[in-house]
Write a structure and sequence with these properties.
Elements lengths: L14 H40 L3 H30 L10
Length: 97
């Protein structure tokens, strides 16, 4: 019987390829974090500009947005019901063949 090992070993891994992959992952992680930070800074700057432009106290802005959301929900529900009434007919109103 020969003394050959058939199980995988760490010696089978190409170390150069693993080191390159690790380096690329590190660069990608740093680049991703930098992009995330830049995106966050842009969103914060836009929010600050919008807040200065609105010229209302925060509780008035919150109340206005709440009223707008309620109006949008009501309009959407009304449109949903109207479309259902106008397009679909109930099975009970269709004459049997």
């Amino acid at each position: 019987m020969t003394d050959r090992r058939t199980d995988p070993s760490l010696q089978d891994l190409p170390r150069g390829l693993l080191i390159g992959a690790g380096a690329l992952l590190a660069v990608a992680s740093v680049t991703g974090l930098a992009g995330f930070a830049m995106c966050g800074a842009a969103v914060i700057a836009a929010a600050r500009r919008w807040y200065r432009r609105v010229d209302l106290p925060p509780h008035h802005i919150a109340n206005l947005k709440w009223q707008q959301a309620k109006a949008a929900v009501g309009a959407g529900a009304g449109a949903w019901c109207d479309a259902e009434k106008n397009v679909y007919t109930p099975r009970s109103s269709v004459p049997a063949p």
